[in-house]
Design brief:
The complex is a heterodimer of chains A (331) and B (268). Chain A has 331 residues and is an alpha/beta fold. Chain A folds into two domains: 184 residues, Rossmann fold, CATH 3.40.50.620; 125 residues, Rossmann fold, CATH 3.40.50. Chain A has eight helices and 16 strands. In chain A, the strands form three sheets. Chain A has a seven-stranded parallel sheet with strand order 5-9-4-1-2-3-10, sandwiched between helices. In chain A, strands 13-12-14-15-16 form a five-stranded parallel sheet. In chain A, helix 3 packs across helix 4 and helix 5 runs parallel beside helix 8. The longest helix of chain A is centred in the first third of the chain and has 18 residues. Chain B folds into two domains: 210 residues, HUPs (Rossmann fold); 38 residues. In chain B, the strands form three sheets. Chain B has a seven-stranded parallel sheet with strand order 7-11-6-1-4-5-12, sandwiched between helices. Chain B has a three-stranded antiparallel sheet with strand order 8-9-10, with no helix packed on it. In chain B, helix 2 links the parallel strand 4 and strand 5. In chain B, helix 2 crosses helix 5 and helix 3 packs across helix 4. The chains are: A alpha/beta (331), B alpha/beta (268). The interface between A and B is large, with 98 and 88 residues. Strand 8 of chain A pairs antiparallel with strand 13 of chain B.
């Protein structure tokens, strides 16, 4: 067994490296690699990915393992599972970390099962105990509880981490690039991606955004969601919604924030016409600053936000957005 | 088709959370138990699959005796039989162990074509057990399926749509496979009164976890649970006459909010 600490890069469909990868590298360097006395390493799995090694090096990876195979293009559950499992068996790292993204949630538990490792999901804190076991904190029970979990005597110790939970900090290295030389047989790939549709959008993705503006059912129509988009674009924010707004057809499911949607933890979360249900808070309760604009003074969100205006969104949002616009154009 | 659906009983999300005296578990005294909401979508999808292709739906659930109530609910919705893996609260069982045990029992059942389960359980919220069960069973899985486009037993395949960040992908997978269900993939039916009556007579088999060797299965231990205390500033701007800001107050309120966000919170 080695003392290496691995961070598996999470790639977007366009092939770029997701921010959570850099956040995980930075936090693993700070909290784990030093204490463990092991090298911080990146792992690149995909097709035509070796060029990203330098980016991982920028955030402290001294070594980057690469499995570059055409069969891994656009993410593939079995392909990723084989690639990472084989790498783990071959090099036996102590700790393996990935982002808790749609893809991370899909293959990471399968890898853990295959190599017989323990795994935790969606960690918001990571460190090591005195006897060098991985210790993580995460949310449970609709974000109303934070369990601390410690790994027992099995290796490797694996966890996914929640995007936007750690700061990405550079620590430039020129990484040694290691060809993982994992063989993947086309016959081992059972599930096939037969279509991918991405919507081009200039807005940041919800789970990565520093700021989020979300709308609830009170917006009243798909048309009125333009108020949300306008403010979001003014702030360089992602646009989100409650389940009720999505169910009402005002916006697509991929904008849903909450227990049954995406979990976000931006610096600023602006909730427009959102009452603040337990289920919604399960997805955004860890935001650093929460702002509410709602006409119901009794809305639960006013009991758990930082700033709020009791008022009609159609009265308040236009002047508010205008003032943000003025501010942005000044700076 | 033989269709399996793995369900869990969970604490109601609306429940107030209290940490037990030992400090590393949730006090479940007086707690309301419900079917894990994601599993309702899984049960519905399983029943719709049966309605389309014929066959039977078998419910699999692990937990203490109270879980039978949730199993009966699934049977009342239209499932045909059930396997209850009785676990009277084995201490320190983690998701890894849970996946192994459930997969072991499913393997004994054998002969299934497709397995549905919720994407995660709303109390633990780990979302790893379904995928681990597929891996243990050696079958492919598709997670977070927003829509089952087609299940074709003749061609031995399923086609599913899965949401990804900024879009979606369509995945084709051979049977048998496991599908994890998020929200909103269907509209789960309510159990009818005749359904509830019939459910009482449907076959329910029980196996005990104590008959299963648990040694060395657990990989992760929960050492502490805390209830998060996030102090919020609670600075709410209200109207002078009545709660809502009106007229000239609106402009002032917007101004004040911007100032607070800039100078106090420093987020814009």
């Amino acid at each position: 067994m080695s003392n290496e600490v691995w961070v598996v890069a999470d790639l977007k469909i366009d092939g770029s490296v997701r921010q959570v990868t850099f956040e995980a590298l930075s936090e693993a360097r700070k909290k784990i690699a030093g204490k463990l006395g092991g090298e911080l390493c990146g792992v690149l799995i995909g097709s035509g990915v070796s060029g990203h090694a330098a980016e991982l090096g920028k955030y402290g990876a001294g070594k980057v393992y690469v499995v570059d195979n055409e069969l891994l293009k656009n993410f593939n559950t079995e392909g990723y599972t084989i690639a990472l499992s084989e790498l783990i068996k071959k090099y036996s790292p102590a700790v393996v970390i990935a982002g808790n993204t749609v893809f991370g949630q899909d293959y990471f538990p399968a890898v853990a099962a295959r190599v017989g490792a323990g795994v935790t999901m969606d960690a918001i804190e990571i460190d090591l105990t005195d006897d060098k076991k991985l210790r993580i904190k995460r949310f449970s029970h609709s974000s109303k509880a934070i369990p601390t979990q410690v790994f027992l005597d099995h290796h490797p110790m694996m966890t996914t981490v929640r995007p936007n939970s750690f700061k990405a900090a550079e620590d430039p290295k020129t990484p040694e690039v290691v060809d993982g030389a994992v063989t993947i047989n086309p016959g081992d790939i059972k599930s096939k991606v037969i279509e991918i549709k991405t919507k081009g959008s200039d807005r940041p993705e919800l789970t990565e955004a520093e700021r989020v503006v979300s709308g609830g059912r009170g917006l009243g129509s798909e048309e009125n969601f333009k108020y949300i988009y306008q403010l979001a674009d003014m702030l360089g924010a992602a646009a989100g919604a409650t389940r009720a707004a999505v169910d009402a057809g005002y916006c697509p499911y991929d904008m849903q924030v909450g227990q049954t949607g995406k979990a976000v933890s931006p610096s600023l979360y602006i909730a427009i016409a959102i009452s603040g249900s337990v289920q919604h808070f399960a997805g955004m309760g860890s935001s650093k600053v929460i702002v509410a604009i709602n006409k119901d003074p009794e809305a639960p969100i006013f009991q758990k936000c930082d700033y709020g205006i009791v008022g009609d969104l159609f009265d308040v949002l236009p002047p508010f957005t205008e003032k943000v616009r003025a501010l942005v154009s000044q700076s | 088709m033989k269709i399996l659906v793995i369900i869990s009983q969970t604490q109601d999300t609306e429940a107030k959370i209290k940490v037990s005296a030992a400090g590393n578990s949730i006090d479940t005294e007086g707690m309301k138990w419900i079917m894990n909401p994601y599993d309702e979508f899984a049960v519905e999808e399983a029943i719709q699959t049966k309605e389309k292709h014929g066959g039977e739906v078998v419910v699999v659930s692990m937990g203490p005796a109270r879980v039978v109530e949730t199993i009966r609910q699934a049977l009342a919705m239209g499932a045909d039989s059930a396997l209850h893996i009785l676990d009277e609260g084995s201490p320190d069982m983690d998701s890894f162990a849970m996946g192994k045990i459930i997969a072991g029992e499913i393997r004994k059942l054998g002969g299934f074509d497709i397995v549905f389960t919720g994407m995660k359980i709303i109390d633990e919220e780990s979302g790893q057990v379904g995928v681990q069960i597929a891996e243990e069973l050696g079958i492919p899985h598709v997670s977070l399926v927003s829509k089952v486009i087609e299940i074709n037993p003749t061609a031995n395949k399923a086609v599913c749509q899965k949401e990804i960040d900024g879009g979606h992908m369509v995945v084709e997978v051979p049977l048998p496979c496991l599908i994890t269900c998020p929200d909103a993939m269907n509209d789960p039916r309510y159990a009818s009164l005749p359904g509830i009556m019939k459910a009482k007579k449907k076959p329910l088999t029980e196996v005990k976890v104590s008959d299963i060797n648990l040694d060395g299965l657990t990989r992760v231990k929960t050492v502490e649970i805390k209830v998060p205390q996030i102090e919020r500033r609670l600075r709410i701007i209200k109207g002078q006459d009545g709660p809502m800001v009106k007229g000239a107050e609106v402009e002032k309120a917007a101004e004040e909010l911007i100032k607070l966000l800039r100078e106090e919170a420093k987020v814009i």
